[in-house]
Amino acid sequence: MEKVAILGSTGSIGKNTLAVIEEHPDQFNVVALAAGKNVKEMIRQVKAFKPKLVSMATRKAADAVKQEVGETVEVLWGDEGLNAVAVCSDSTYLVSSLVGSKGLAPTLAAIRAGKKIGLANKETLVTAGHIVTAEARKHQVPLLPIDSEHSALFQCFNGERSAEAERLIITASGGAFRDWSREELIHATVEQALKHPNWSMGNKITIDSATMMNKGFEVIEAHWLFDFPYGKIDVILHPQSVIHSMVEFSDGAVMAQLGTPDMKIPIQYALAYPRRMPLRTKRLDLVSLSRLDFRALDFRRYPCLRMAYEAGKAGGTMPAVLNAANEVAVEMFLNRDCNFLDIEEIVERTLDAHQNVGNPSLEEIEEADRWARQFAKNCLVPVA
Ligand SMILES: NC(=O)C1=CN([C@@H]2O[C@H](COP(=O)(O)OP(=O)(O)OC[C@H]3O[C@@H](n4cnc5c(N)ncnc54)[C@H](OP(=O)(O)O)[C@@H]3O)[C@@H](O)[C@H]2O)C=CC1
Ligand SMILES: CC(=O)[C@@H](O)[C@H](O)COP(=O)(O)O
Ligand SMILES: [Mn+2]
């Protein structure tokens, strides 16, 4: 029996994780849950899954949950609560599915406490890949990818020798604006950007998919997960999101993992690894699909992807700055405080202004994150 704690249980990945657990009550047991402010959903989850420990982002949200769930559940809040859920003594497995770099500290704490990690929060590896992978090795903790492309790559590597792989090929749907020109993007609205063609996901990653920053993050994530140089990680456009990614080996053979766009598949694979278990999900019907398309990607059309490669190659605090500036810019766009194309402008200006720190400590990464957020918030304001 895997005893599971989930960070971000009320989100898209969190709810899909609970749906997988619900299908296999004999295999998985929920022991702790953490979320932000969605009190109603957390109360429903506590009643359905009976965790012993729960945490919410604020005292107010925690009090509201406490009122409904009674004395048998410990309800905490804030960073301390997140940390307590991550290292909860009853758990064997942490699903890390908070959104943003907020996920880094509790995920690191869980690694240090020896928990197996199902990693959805890509910002953990983007911001501090060198520390997270070193700590996972030190504590002999597996980092099991949940992100669909990395789950695909992980499955393609199964039974293979990674030294015999030559190239990782990550597929990109192109997001909501795949067929829009840059001129048209000037007028892109929040509602349009949130309409992903294939996947149903949280707002932040859906915007990242539309800017292609999501793919940039995934390149950095793949670099750390599979210890691959950036020069051997390619991205190609694949509008159908049926091939989730591929590995090309030294003999020219290419392994691919295919499936319908349903996150329950990679989530269950990460939870059950190395087993496979039955899952009620729509089956892939290649005949009715009839074709799969692929196109090359143009860095001029997608500057966020270019910036992510550059920040990844530069290393140091650059990827953390890339992420923090992007978090600020996406939030501004979602709040209608800037235009869609301002997202890339804010990120670029912040990266250009940053003094990179090589081989940073966790504190230096946190400091770079704080600096970048402050800079990014104000960098579009014209100087008087
Ligand atoms: N969705 C997907 O299919 C995929 C997602 N990912 C990655 O997984 C991660 C999660 O994505 P997704 O599920 O879409 O995101 P959502 O926005 O749907 O969910 C985010 C979760 O984090 C919680 N949260 C936000 N802020 C805080 C906080 N300060 N303290 C505690 N909890 C907080 C939210 O709580 P609440 O809602 O209660 O406020 C919610 O439970 C991201 O890193 C994303 O890039 C990767 C691949 C696919
Ligand atoms: C489901 C998942 O893993 C997302 O990261 C998804 O890949 C987004 O799709 P695109 O970024 O390719 O549009
Ligand atoms: Mn992905």
TrEMBL record:
Organism for this UniProt entry: Thermoactinomyces mirandus
GO biological process: isopentenyl diphosphate biosynthetic process, methylerythritol 4-phosphate pathway involved in terpenoid biosynthetic process
InterPro entries: DXP_reductoisomerase, DXP_reductoisomerase_C, DXP_reductoisomerase_N, DXPR_C, DXPR_C_sf, NAD(P)-bd_dom_sf
Protein's gene: dxr
Family per similarity comment: Belongs to the DXR family.
Binding site for Mn(2+): D147, E149, E218
Pathway stated in the Swiss-Prot or TrEMBL entry: Isoprenoid biosynthesis; isopentenyl diphosphate biosynthesis via DXP pathway; isopentenyl diphosphate from 1-deoxy-D-xylulose 5-phosphate: step 1/6
Source organism, top-level taxon: Bacteria
Keyword match GTP-binding: no
Full protein name: 1-deoxy-D-xylulose 5-phosphate reductoisomerase
